[in-house]
Amino acid sequence: VPFLTQERAALDFYMKCIHVGITMRDTKYWKHDTFKALTDGSELTLAPNQIPAERLERVAQTLNEFKYLFTEQPTQCTTATIRHKIVLREHRTIHERPYPTTPEKKKLIATQVQEMLSLGVMKPCTSEYCSPPVIVEREGKKPRFCIDYRSLNALTVEEPTVLPKISETLKDFGTATCFTTLDLR
């Protein structure tokens, strides 16, 4: 308990997570009630074209060793510790109608919205701003639920940032030879 007090830990039972750290806050979520980990003896499967052949077996072993960390369903990935404010160049509301779409895509949108509501990833709100949902078709992949924020982005004040030199970023890789990406949707 002294460590948690010293690090100003905050338990958030609504979001099912703990926030720890004074200068660098870190948030860790615990399994929620509907979490279904891959602990039923099933193996994680990988598409052979996603990983170089010489590393496929080792990656599969590692993933299967830690398969209890994975789930076949999305999990909650929100935080209550960070507040984000969008600053606009001018105060103008944006209220766009949904785009015309097929009945199949409408059903997919409704399903995705319901799933995100039930997971607590999104919540109902009343706002002056409304951007249309879109379903992005990707070859060989599942359709992806997105929101078209282009109109809002056009009014957003850009925050000046300085990107690091690519040579410095590449140095950070050191002697690594295997890379991956993480898509949080």
Task: Tell me about the largest β-sheet.
Answer: 3 strands, antiparallel
| CA-based shape | extended
Total number of helices = 5
Q: Which percent band covers the strand fraction?
A: 5-15%
How far is the N terminus from the C terminus?
Answer: 35 Å
Q: Please, how many domains?
A: 2
Percentage of residues in helical conformation? 25-40%
Protein name: Retrovirus-related Pol polyprotein
Structure described in brief:
This protein has helices at 2-6, 53-65, 103-119, 150-155, 166-172, and strands at residues 10-12, 17-20, 26-29, 133-136, 144-147. The protein starts with a helix and ends in a 13-residue tail after the last helix. By secondary structure, the chain is an alpha+beta fold.
Which keywords apply here?
26% helix, extended, alpha+beta, Rev_trsase/Diguanyl_cyclase, three-stranded antiparallel β-sheet, two-stranded antiparallel sheet, DNA/RNA_pol_sf, 185 residues, 2 domains, 5 helices
Write a structural description.
By secondary structure, the chain is of the alpha+beta class. The chain folds into 2 domains: 2-80, no CATH class; 103-155, no CATH class. It is built from 5 helices and 5 strands; from the N terminus they run αβββααββαα. It starts with a helix and ends in a 13-residue tail after the last helix. Residues 32-38 have low confidence and may be disordered.
